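Hey team,

Filing this mostly as a record. A colleague (T.K.) asked me to run one chain through the structure pipeline before their review meeting, and I want the input and output archived in the tracker in case anyone asks later how it was produced. No errors, nothing strange. Just documentation.

Input sequence:
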Amino acid sequence: MGNLFKIAIRNLIRYRRRTLLTGSLVAIGVVFVLVFVATSGSFKNMIISQITDSMLGHIQIHQKGYVASIDNLPLTLNMGSQAMSRVDKLLSGTSGIEAYSPRIKFGGGFSNFAETTNVRLNGVYPEKEMKTVPLLASRIIEGEKAIKKGEILIPELLARGMKIRIGDMVVIIATNKDGSVNGKQLKVGGILESATGPGGRDGYIHIEDAMDILRMEVHRSLIMNSM
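Output structure:
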């Protein structure tokens, strides 16, 4: 084995130009691989960050069984006031949590008095929501970058399809957990940039408006960890 290494080293020294070219090619190849891995990793992290910081948050807390039925947005699996009090106490006393925001998420009917379609709505506390998902404001392409009581932020998909503009009045109709149908008239305060997946049909309203429509309390908490 020792003789093989000696012969190899002697061969490398004898043909220095060939050794330099081969070594350079190997080094360039390694550099390109490292750059590709770093770029793809950064791109992946950027995509994840865009989704978590504009819609989802880093951690979500639900009532047991909610995730299994998440496509139906079940109102019967909401977190009660006692559960929310325990969650608030836990989060407030936990270091490393930068912000968290309670939410009510539900499906309903969306009408501009001429047409009606379905929509997914998020009832939120504006200040807490903007801190928890800081890129949400950047998705508001028209209107004020805020969520106000009595107003609604609608996805661009609905605004374009139903020819709705800022300041128009719309009606939200939803069935609460007891089966009764409620409705509320809201003003369009902003239009959201389209997002991938089901989030492309998500609108935002003030949590007090959501509780007024559904006659219920907070559904879940959404948390963002500090970096």
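Quick notes for T.K.: The mean pLDDT is 84. The chain has two domains: 2-52, 60-225.
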